[in-house]
Amino acid sequence: MDGPAIRHALEANVVHGCGRALALLTAAIAVLTWSSGPADATTFELPEDGSLVIGTDTSITTHYKDTLLDIARQYSLGYDEIIRANPGIDMWLPGEGTQIALPERRILPPGPHEGVIVSLPEHRLYYFPTAKRGKRVVMTYPVSIGKLGRSTPLGVTRVIDKVEHPSWYPTASVRKEHLDAGDPLPGVVGPGPANPLGDFKIRLGFGNGTYEIHGTNNPTAVGLAITHGCIRMYPEDVAELFAMLPLGTPVRLINVPVKVAWIDGELLLEAHPPVDADERFEPDMSRFSDLSRAAVGEATVAIDWDYAREVLKKADGIIATVGLAAEDPNAPALPTMPIARAAPGQDATP
User: What's the farthest any 2 CA atoms get from each other in the chain?
Assistant: First the structure.
């Protein structure tokens, strides 16, 4: 079963906001095994100089038994993140000795860096805990969000409840959806491996508490826009977040597909597909221009606009350098040569 076929199967067989592994996927999912990844795969110190960039893009060399989804889970990446960063590589059989890019360098989302921020275009959650001993960190995790027509809401809310080993009560609309598909659901699913909420549920104030951050019994699909509006996490990630997150924590859900940063004379661009966009979306060059102007201030910058358009259209989430500081105030707006993307960082072996 190839990547598009699995995506279609996952999207066609979703319950609530979590999805459950059906017989169609059992054989494929059974090949996935997970081992603990690097201890710092999700936690980064916030730069003391106020820089908006965290992490480092790296790469690994596969062993014969690896799959892209094994690697994604090990390095705290989602389904779409690992696939977009490695086009043309077989997700189930990348092969022995294949170089796999790990997009772990990110521009922090805009706005106050406090509590939880869920960036819907990134399919990623950021948690900014209270500083300890003067040090501030951010913890970031891949998530699944609402599918087309079942969007995750935008705005500001708070954590109103936390439940360990929750029961799941599918809504009437979800039960009808599955009944129409010949897959009737019970009125309640108790705790256990059949529960699509997993072992931890964090209720948000949206919709009278009907929107949640929770685990899953189908981790293969983490990172897709596949839910009925809730936010789904890997089981180990939601367990970690659940233990740290106080009641009342502010949660901000945003739709910011394009991020820009000005770091050490380089204009950096990170682009993701707009929420609910199809593959034919057009790059928003006007928005990029506004963000760039705000980021660089009074600095004179030579921007490769053609390359910026290419990065915006590709929307693979990998940071690219699209502009450089120009010492001569009369320098042309366009460089004569394209600006190459920086080479991947250090090589590591899983």
Answer: 70
SS3 55: coil
pLDDT at 151: 85
Which two structure tokens, joined as six digits, stand for 171?
Answer: 């809504």
Of 260, 339, 332, give the one whose Cα is nearest residue 292: 260
- Beta-bridged to residue 189, according to DSSP, are 168
| pTM, to two decimals | 0.83
Structure tokens at 59: 């790469």
Identity (one letter) of the amino acid at 340? A
Q: Report in angstroms the alpha-carbon separations of 294 from 260, 270, 298.
A: 9, 15, 9
Per domain, the residue ranges of the chain are: 3-254, 258-341
What is the three-class DSSP state of 53? strand
- Tokens describing residue 175: 């039960």
**Architecture of domain 3-254 in CATH?**
Beta Barrel (2.40)
Quick one: pLDDT at residue 40? 52
pLDDT score, position 16: 42
What pLDDT is attached to residue 338?
A: 42
Beta bridge partners of 159: 204
Residue 130's pLDDT is: 92
Q: Which residues are catalytic?
A: 214, 230
A 10 A CB-CB count for 151 gives 17
Long-range contacts (CB closer than 8 Å, 24 or more residues apart) made by 287-292: 287/258, 288/258, 288/260, 288/312, 291/258, 291/259, 291/260, 292/260, 292/267, 292/323
pLDDT of residue 244: 95
pLDDT for position 331: 54
pLDDT value, residue 152: 92
Task: Please report which helix (H) or strand (E) contains residue 145, including its range.
Answer: strand 145-146
Closest by CA to 15, choosing from 212, 195, 210, is 195
- Alpha helix positions (H), 187-260: 235-244
Those residues of the chain that have pLDDT short of 70 are 1-41, 279, 328-350
